[in-house]
Amino acid sequence: MFAIAFGDDDDETKPYHKKRAKIYRVLNSMADGHLRGMGFAGAVVAGLKNGMLEARTESQKKNPNYMDAIVEMIKISP
């Protein structure tokens, strides 16, 4: 969040897609923190969200392996 708010001098030289990916990772981490802070139900929702994101990433590969997505979905402990 600090990097987004105050930025780095290096950010001006990075391509747009790298800046966007960095912002996406920060926002995803913040969402995970808020959801996990809500207790068990939030941890379940965060796990399902992360599993779906992992499944989407795997589906774009030539030989997708969805086992990592399944593991993300059942991961509840911090």
Walkthrough of the structure:
The chain is mainly α and 78 residues long. The protein has four helices and no strands. It has helices spanning 2-6, 16-37, 40-59, 67-74. Helix 3 (40-59) runs antiparallel to helix 4 (67-74). It is flat, with a radius of gyration of 15 Å.
Sum up the overall morphology in one term.
Answer: flat
Class by SSE composition: mainly alpha
pLDDT under 50 segments (min length 5)? none
Helix content: over 70%
Instruction: Tell me the fraction of residues in β-strands, as a range.
Output: under 5%
Report the radius of gyration as a whole number of Å: 15 Å
Summarize model confidence as the mean pLDDT.
Answer: 82
Largest sheet composition: none
How far is it from the N-terminal to the C-terminal residue, by CA? Answer: 20 Å
The tally of strands reads 0
N-to-C order of helices and strands: HHHH
Summarize the structure.
This protein is mainly α and 78 residues long.
Feature tags:
78 residues; mainly alpha; 71% helix; flat
Detail the topology: elements first, then pairings.
Layout: H1 2-6, H2 16-37, H3 40-59, H4 67-74
